[in-house]
Specification:
This protein is of the alpha/beta class and about 400 residues long. It contains 14 helices and 17 strands. α3 links the parallel β4 and β5. Keywords: Methyltransferase, Transferase.
Length: about 400
């Protein structure tokens, strides 16, 4: 399929499809009962790959202000994510000797789930979070938070006020930035000369290896490999000097970057090793990307086969969680209340509402014990260990857990 769109980083024409997931609503646009019969906007979830810089990306169909100004995702509702953030702050504090003279800035700081650890340690911290409803939770915790979108304009304003960062971080934000060049140029400005940037994002290789197509949604504009993100950072005078592979979100990268030429942060072997691994995987060969779409179709077939068999046998299925990835999965596979009676979520901002597109009701987790389903379908499969541990009582009535990605597995 041809398109007139261009790569958001290098400007190359986007003519190569990575995967087409059809038309879906915004994944965080939960619906209340009064609006169930009203029209919902659906947008193409068609992903392309740039043949020049190998950035996998969506076109921008919706202004970020519409997506993020009132947001339903709160990081603090995952215990394992809170622990991940705490471990990170301890490690960064030790590795870079952060103290009360340092300055930490987090981009897309959400509800303060991470910065609260720096604040508790007496390390000055600033959050930047455009979603005002989410940012207010952080402000109520005593975390200084600016409710604006980040880019060159805000970075210049902060620098003019004498606020630069020793540590500039962003977890799962880089993928959500439509104007990559403005965002990364802003980071370059805000970073002190010997400062460090860390960014975490799902790793494209893991997405492809494990059929994690449900991590694709309109809020995620880009899907990164090390090869692609190095090109973006280098174009703005930033060098990636270290990288870690993390288990979070089905397999993520944490990159460390500094000003190009800054000798206090020499490039480590981990960067060369991962780059070589990605080259061997074939990330600079278009044929590698072309094979992904069929993997996705087969994953859909297997999940539908499982659910159809469950219903034919009179089994009940309930969902656990109402994450963005779950809504991509449900809409692409055409799974509604004909297969799943309801889903549950710990986030009170989602309870009492309905999933976008599929209109599956979202209840408090107490609904599991009342209904006693035969199967609990874990939609945030990246948290499966945490969820199975918290809800092990399902086994009391002979219930089982189901994970849909990378393929259907019953626990």
């Amino acid at each position: 399929m041809k398109t007139s769109s261009h790569c958001r980083f290098c400007g190359e024409s986007l003519n190569y499809t990575f995967v087409d997931l059809g038309m879906t609503p915004l994944c965080e646009s939960y619906i209340d009962a009064d609006h169930l019969n009203m029209m919902e906007p659906f947008y193409p979830l068609h992903v392309y790959v740039c043949p020049k810089c190998f950035l996998v990306q969506l076109e921008e169909y919706v202004n970020p202000h519409e997506i993020f100004c009132d947001y339903a995702y709160f990081s603090s509702y995952s215990d394992s994510w809170l622990q991940h953030a705490k471990t990170y702050t301890e490690m960064m504090t030790s590795r870079y000797s952060l103290n009360d003279s340092s300055h930490v800035v987090e981009l897309a700081s959400n509800d303060g789930y991470l910065l609260q650890n720096f604040v508790a340690a007496g390390i000055p911290a600033l959050g930047i979070e455009p979603a005002k409803n989410v940012a207010q939770v952080a402000i109520d915790k005593g975390i200084t938070t600016i409710t604006e979108f980040f880019g060159v304009k805000l970075a210049k304003s902060l620098v003019d006020d004498g606020k630069q960062a020793d540590l500039l971080l962003g977890n799962n934000v880089l993928a959500q930035v439509p104007d990559l060049n403005d965002f990364v140029a802003g980071m370059k400005l805000l970073l002190k000369q010997r400062g460090v940037i860390t960014m975490e994002f799902p790793h494209l290789v893991r997405l492809m290896e494990e059929n994690q197509f449900d991590t694709i949604y309109h809020e995620h504009f880009s899907y990164f490999s090390l090869i692609a993100v190095e090109k973006v950072f280098a174009a703005h005078g930033l060098t990636i000097f270290d990288v870690e592979q993390l288990p979070t979100h089905g397999g993520s990268l944490r990159i460390y970057a500094c000003h190009t030429g800054e000798k206090s942060h020499p490039t480590l072997a981990a960067v060369t090793d991962l780059r070589t691994s990605e080259l061997n995987f074939g990330l600079t060969q278009m044929a590698t990307y072309a094979s992904f779409a069929e993997q996705v179709r087969e994953t859909k077939r297997k999940l539908l086969e499982f659910l159809i068999n469950c219903k034919r046998k009179g089994k009940t299925v309930v969902g656990y969680g109402a994450p963005g990835k779950g809504n991509t999965l449900l809409n692409y596979c055409g799974i509604g209340t004909d297969f799943i009676d309801f889903t549950v979520d710990r986030n009170p901002h989602k309870q009492g509402k309905f999933s976008p597109g599929t209109h599956i009701p979202i209840y408090h987790p107490d609904g599991i014990k009342k209904f006693q389903p035969d199967f609990l379908l874990i939609l945030p499969w990246n948290l499966k260990k945490e969820i199975i541990s918290q809800n092990s009582y399902v086994y009391d009535w002979g219930g089982k857990f189901v994970v849909p990605i990378p393929e259907v597995a019953v626990f």
